């Protein structure tokens, strides 16, 4: 905020904290609602210079708002330019609201600023909110009017629809062109490279094509643009190297501006040197209205269409969204199905995506080859866990894990970012695929499938009606503030953004026949369900930042069973022979615990009169399955199959340690290997006092560990049966693998038939 003149504006510390919280940069635990509630309190001693309400009229109020807004911007805007298009952030929006109220007594609603941040419109809205009659705005000439549904005809004069229709009509001024060169692209203009999907697509374009990529980046110069690209790649755990820098050109510009903010000469050069355009750039904000987003999401694609038609004709590949179908009650979402009625799209983001596609459909009619790529939710990377922190799907997972509730829904149309990027890149590099619509939505997950995955993971949520879930979630976020979830709370409190969320949850499965045919034809990786396995790394990162909550032992065991061991121990020198028995209760918090650690928690007691006349209580303990990934001890033939580590306390308060290992060997007594535990027992901080062997009695295995297997009672009967079967299948697979490893080692040694050094080894 160094560009602000502190003599002109002093922002109270309380208001700055509220702004930083909206931007997600603060670790404060206060909610935005609490902080914004205090914006009306002027600092003691400050004066309001606004005077009586009747003194304000549209032009004077517009000038006041414009002048105040420009103090927060590096580049001044006019009365009809959007505050956010001037480079403002949510921080600046909160500060603008605070400054207008403190200095002029003008209390703007922050939602009004997000909806339409043009100073003239803010002035008109403020006067209307205060009961003033506002003269109608001068209508803009509308050369062509898209067909509206009958029930919306009486709302055609609405400012948003009027602006949208006017924007779409501008595409009629595009020239008519012939087909582009049909060869594979050699020099690609890529926008949105600093975003989540754009960063991944940049790397995929470099990996899977020979093209040089010109990256349009909002920056003051080329060095700053290159620095922003490098920073974005690192943020999403993607490699940045000299080779990447060699194959890209960082182009400072802004696709919100006419001719991308370039000089006429640079515009003409760019039009001649690139032979393909890939547009991933967009302003993704579900709180802002159409007027606030149009410059990025509608006029930007229109400008790129103009560039594609200037000089040599170039194909334009536009990343849109299935949000163009986001009307409540939609029954089908096919790649060539009609999109939603514009008057039924409530959120500004959805409206801009609809308008951008309408603009590009008209460009198609003028001969431009336009490919429309529609992802749905873009999930995190299954390997790196990189994710978009402000994506609705990330927030949805986070709230489910933190609060244990979930709204009912039909399908979740979510695909991992690496798959979306790979398929989108392949389409943009294959001339025969150009000019069509593609859905990059992966495999939709039904409500039952998602519930099954969560139940298996030990996170069975409570299902709520949409309105109940929305109210409950907002209340919980306010009660347990998490800065990263404040944007979700504001979305759910906003009627239009809330309707967008509801439309996503009630939407049908997105259909992607053309995309699947392309994948099969070109041997690309088939989509995999964005299930618990794919989400694991992302979930870990969400949990590391405090956004999500992993299953915990306090939630109650997901699965539990008993194990009985009987045997004898002796002193380390072999003297004595003492009976020893363990009665254990083994429990699993979640399948996540098994997949990541292969660990089981242990409680119970140990009975050995030689150690203490009374049983020792196990205070904490764990058992690991295949603890060393099959590596034998000291390169020998004994491979650790299971390892037990316990901390115990006797009745006198003395603490004891216990360590035992089940070994796999290249021998036929496989059953004995899975039952027998070699043990050591000693006092805390002392060497072992007893060593020996204990084993699971044959007649206790089935009653304890199969028939006695217990699942969490919160699960349905079907999910309990499924959880037991999955555990038994996983456990037997791991044990079978562990028993096979020493056998394979022996076979490998037998095939090493060399009796001496080879000629190569001698030299």
How would the blueprint of this fold be written?
Blueprint: H1 13-22, H2 32-37, H3 58-70, H4 90-104, H5 110-115, H6 119-129, H7 159-169, E1 187-191, H8 196-208, E2 212-217, H9 222-235, H10 242-246, E3 248-252, H11 264-273, E4 276-279, H12 290-308, E5 316-319, H13 348-365, E6 370-375, E7 377-379, H14 392-403, E8 405-407, E9 411-412, E10 414-416, H15 417-428, E11 437-440, E12 445-446, H16 447-456, E13 462-464, H17 466-479, H18 486-493, H19 495-506, H20 513-522, H21 532-544, E14 559-570, E15 578-588, H22 591-597, E16 599-607, E17 616-625, E18 639-649, E19 655-664, H23 670-675, E20 676-683, E21 690-695, H24 698-706, E22 710-711, H25 717-751, H26 759-762
Parallel strand pairs: 1-2, 1-4, 2-3, 4-5, 5-6, 6-11, 7-10, 8-13
Antiparallel strand pairs: 9-12, 14-15, 14-21, 14-22, 15-16, 16-17, 17-18, 18-19, 19-20, 20-21
Helix pairs in contact: 1-4, 3-6, 7-12, 7-13, 8-15, 12-13, 17-18, 18-19
Keywords: Phosphopantetheine, Phosphoprotein, Plasmid
InterPro entries: ACP-like_sf (IPR036736), FAR_NAD-bd (IPR013120), NAD(P)-bd_dom_sf (IPR036291), PP-bd_ACP (IPR009081), Thioester_reductase-like_dom (IPR010080)
Protein name: Thioester reductase domain-containing protein
What does this protein look like?
By secondary structure, the protein is α/β, with parallel strands linked by helices. The protein has three domains: 13-129, Orthogonal Bundle (Non-ribosomal Peptide Synthetase Peptidyl Carrier Protein, Chain A), CATH 1.10.1200; 184-544, 3-Layer(aba) Sandwich (Rossmann fold), CATH 3.40.50; 554-711. It contains 26 helices and 22 strands. An eight-stranded antiparallel beta barrel has the order 14-15-16-17-18-19-20-21. Strands 3-2-1-4-5-6-11 form a seven-stranded parallel sheet, with helices on both faces. Strand 1, helix 8 and strand 2 (212-217) form a beta-alpha-beta unit. Helix 7 runs parallel beside helix 13 (348-365). The longest helix has 35 residues, at 717-751. The radius of gyration is 32 Å and the shape is elongated. It starts with 12 loop residues before the first helix and ends with a helix. Mean pLDDT is 83; it is low at 1-51, 139-157 and 757-763.
């Amino acid at each position: 905020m160094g560009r602000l003149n502190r003599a002109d504006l002093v922002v109270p510390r309380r208001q700055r904290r509220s702004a930083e919280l909206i931007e997600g940069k603060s670790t404060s635990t206060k909610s935005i609602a609490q902080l914004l509630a205090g914006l009306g309190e002027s600092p003691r001693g400050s004066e309001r210079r606004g005077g009586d309400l009747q003194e304000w009229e549209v032009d004077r109020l517009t000038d006041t708002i414009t002048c105040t807004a420009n103090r927060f911007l590096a580049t001044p805007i006019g009365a009809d330019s959007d505050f956010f298009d001037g480079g403002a952030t949510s921080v600046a929006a909160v500060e603008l609201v605070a400054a207008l109220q403190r200095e002029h007594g003008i209390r703007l609603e922050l939602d009004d600023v997000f909806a339409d941040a043009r100073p003239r419109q803010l002035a008109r809205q403020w006067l209307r909110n205060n009961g003033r009659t506002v003269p109608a705005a001068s209508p803009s000439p509308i050369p062509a009017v898209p067909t509206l549904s009958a029930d919306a005809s009486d709302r055609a004069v609405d400012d948003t629809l009027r602006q949208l229709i006017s924007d779409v009509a501008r595409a009629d001024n595009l020239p008519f062109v012939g087909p582009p060169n049909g060869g594979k692209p050699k020099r690609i203009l890529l926008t949105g490279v600093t975003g989540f999907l754009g960063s991944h697509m940049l790397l995929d374009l470099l990996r899977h094509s020979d093209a040089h990529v010109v990256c349009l980046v909002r920056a003051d110069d080329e060095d700053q643009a290159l620095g922003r690209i490098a920073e974005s790649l690192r943020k999403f755990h993607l490699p940045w190297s000299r080779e990447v820098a060699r194959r890209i050109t960082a182009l400072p510009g802004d696709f919100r501006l006419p001719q991308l903010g370039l000089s006429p000469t640079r515009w003409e050069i760019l039009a001649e040197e690139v032979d393909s355009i890939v547009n991933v750039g967009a302003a993704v904000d579900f709180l802002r209205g159409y007027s606030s987003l149009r410059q990025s999401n509608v006029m930007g694609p229109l400008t790129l269409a103009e560039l594609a038609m200037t000089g040599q004709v170039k194909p334009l590949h536009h990343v849109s969204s299935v949000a163009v179908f986001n009307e409540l009650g939609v029954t089908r979402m096919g790649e060539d199905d009609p999109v939603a009625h514009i008057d039924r799209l409530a959120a500004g983001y959805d409206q801009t995506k609809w308008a951008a596609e309408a603009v590009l459909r008209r460009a198609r009619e003028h001969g431009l080859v336009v490919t429309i790529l529609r992802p749905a939710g873009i999930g995190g990377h299954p390997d790196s866990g990189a994710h978009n922190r402000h994506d609705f799907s990330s927030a949805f997972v986070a709230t489910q894990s933190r609060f244990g509730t979930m709204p009912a829904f039909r399908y979740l149309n979510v695909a991992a970012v690496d798959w979306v990027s790979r398929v989108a890149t392949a389409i943009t590099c294959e001339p025969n695929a150009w000019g069509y619509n593609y859905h990059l939505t992966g495999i939709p997950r039904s409500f039952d499938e998602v519930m099954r995955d969560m139940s298996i993971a030990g996170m069975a949520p409570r299902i709520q009606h949409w309105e109940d879930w929305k109210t409950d979630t907002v209340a919980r976020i306010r009660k347990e503030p998490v800065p990263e979830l404040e944007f979700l709370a504001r979305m759910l409190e906003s009627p239009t953004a809330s309707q967008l969320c509801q439309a996503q949850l009630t939407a049908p499965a997105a259909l992607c026949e053309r995309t699947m045919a392309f994948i099969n034809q070109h041997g690309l990786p088939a989509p995999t369900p964005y299930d618990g396995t794919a989400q694991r790394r992302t979930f870990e990162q969400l949990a590391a930042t405090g956004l999500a909550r992993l299953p915990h032992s306090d939630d109650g065991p997901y699965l539990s069973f008993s194990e009985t061991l009987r045997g004898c121990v002796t002193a380390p020198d072999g003297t004595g022979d003492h009976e020893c028995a363990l009665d254990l209760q083994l429990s699993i918090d979640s399948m996540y615990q098994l997949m990541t650690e292969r660990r089981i928690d242990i409680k119970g007691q140990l009975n050995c009169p030689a150690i203490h006349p009374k049983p020792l209580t196990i205070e904490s303990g764990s058992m690991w399955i295949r603890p060393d990934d099959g590596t034998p001890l000291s390169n020998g033939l004994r491979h650790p199959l299971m390892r037990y580590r316990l901390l115990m306390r006797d009745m006198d308060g003395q603490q004891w340690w216990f360590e035992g290992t089940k070994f796999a060997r290249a021998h036929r007594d496989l059953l004995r290997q899975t039952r027998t535990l070699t043990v050591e027992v000693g006092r805390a901080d002392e060497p072992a006092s007893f060593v020996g062997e204990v084993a699971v009695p044959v007649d206790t295995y089935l009653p304890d560990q199969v028939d006695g297997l217990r699942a969490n009672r919160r699960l349905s009967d079907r999910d309990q049966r499924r959880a037991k079967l999955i555990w038994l299948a996983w456990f037997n697979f791991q044990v079978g693998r562990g028993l096979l490893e020493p056998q394979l080692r022996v076979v490998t040694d037998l095939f090493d038939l060399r009796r001496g050094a080879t000629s190569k080894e001698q030299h």
